[in-house]
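Closing statement on the 6-O-phosphono-alpha-D-glucopyranose sub-project.
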Amino acid sequence: MCGIVAYVGDRTAYPILIKGLQRLEYRGYDSAGIALFNGEGARVYKCKGKVKDLQALVRDKEVGGSIGMGHTRWATHGEPSDANAHPHASMHGTFHVVHNGIIENHVHLRSELARRGYAFRSETDTEVLANLIEDVYREQGVSAELAVRLALTRVVGAYGLVILCEDEPGRLIAARKGSPLVIGVGEGEYFLASDAMPIIEYTDRVIYMNDEEVAVITPDALDLKDLYNDVKTPEIKTIKLSIENVDKGEFAHFMLKEIHEQPFSVTDTFRGRVAAGGDKIVLGGILDVMPRLVEARRVIIVACGTSWHAALVGEYLFEKYARVPVEVEYASEFRYRDPIVDEGDLVIAISQSGETADTLAAIRRVKGTGATRLGICNVAGSSVSRETDAGVYTRAGIEIGVASTKAFTSQITVLAMMAFLLGSKRRTLPADEYRELVTGLTRVPEMIAGVLEQEAKIKEIAHLYKDAPNALFLGRGILFPVALEGALKLKEISYIHAEGYPAAEMKHGPIALVDERMPVFALATSDHLYEKTAGNIQEVKARGGKVIAIATRGNEEIRGLADQVIEIPPCHEALSPLLAVIPLQLFAYHVAVARGCNVDQPRNLAKSVTVE
Ligand code: G6P
């Protein structure tokens, strides 16, 4: 979603901003802009389109100045257009603002400002904010910083903001509520960004701003306060990301690289947490709350998108092995219900980014209920990880492709470890089965590598079906969420309409769509539901449908049933989602490439959805 990058120091800001915007492209956006300051007023360049369009726009233009801010916009209020792109200036040109998030009371503020004589050039909520700050500044004769703080107390909604006041050049003002902002600390310079990506090549020392904090930043100093003027002490952290992590290497796309990283990312997820002999799992991040977890009467998992699919896999694992009832909730629905939650509950938020607005709101919704709140996040230091009582990092490494792949398998790996551990502590999982499951988990990476070796065959199948108008993904039991994930991957990046369904449920609707043009993926591994799924395959075939089966190696019968078969190695049923999803990721990828789609930045999608 929207991205912010800004610089204060003695270097020329322009190349830092452009590179920063390129590093933020993965978040998804539709327009880009920069403002540059050299002490004689701002130069603002912005346009609809990509960063390369912005670069073309500024070619031959003056790009000096050692202070600047840049923005990639993902439209919320107003279509993607030059006028709606950030930065936005206030009416009299005193303030320039880049903003992530949504100002919810912008309609009310806009009409109030209009009555006071303010005119607007864009349809954005951000321009309303720029004018609100300017109005406070002019009316009350206060400093720019105080004007920002006073204006923000009137704002309902979420913001990550960088602001420059033309009357006070040489400094940037940053503010955060609900939408992340990271400050990179250099020597005589500071970097600001909505995530660490644009910062890591300059410094590994960062400050994560907290909600309702305002920072005034010059090349030599950073003053941090809350909205109400209380001085805050910035906490500098060291981040471990390096620039190699954010390169595509030999791969054509980040998504393909991330699919192929899964043998390593899953290993990183369990490394040091699972004992070699398979008799012990240690999850340091939840040790302190373990007694509460063992006693939990119910688990509620909140998440969005792919993380929600991982949560559904978690439901099967927790119920089967820890024998605790589980509810999986869309975070966006849960936050606005009146959920019944008490101290017997364990609420788990799953989020790759740890910044998804709805997931964050869901975890805040249950604060004060007595429930134990856990986070399963990939990004260290993210909001979800900071606002939960405890948690487990997935350690998948940075994920850049908008369509999530390795984060999904790492989330399932964490959920599996938690379920097995709780099952063992609650004595619902016998010791020998526990050992078998843990040992099985440690073998998953080599099995994923084996599935990846079938890429050429999967690519061929993808080319057979690349022009299909629709696709159906069927699964049962623990593979039903994988069917949902396979459909999501395909629709996200290839724009083919796809649906995931519980295989038996097909008869209650989707079977009406089946014809020779519709590929039907059947997740038909040799588990306790295999015979049932095989029956569903027959039903599709009887109606002229094309079936691609994901089956367990050694199953010869399935060749007579399906049009194409992709094999996964035999493994414990509980771990089969980690293998069965790989061919579906590769299929979606190769279909999207064959259709000429922008795999890493699919239209309209954002990597981190920081608005609700
Ligand atoms: C967006 C991304 C998805 C992701 C979802 C939830 O829709 O495009 O890939 O699954 O957000 O994100 P989270 O960071 O909370 O896992």
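DSSP finds 19 helices and 24 strands in the chain. With this model delivered, the sub-project is considered complete and its resources will be redirected to Aim 3.
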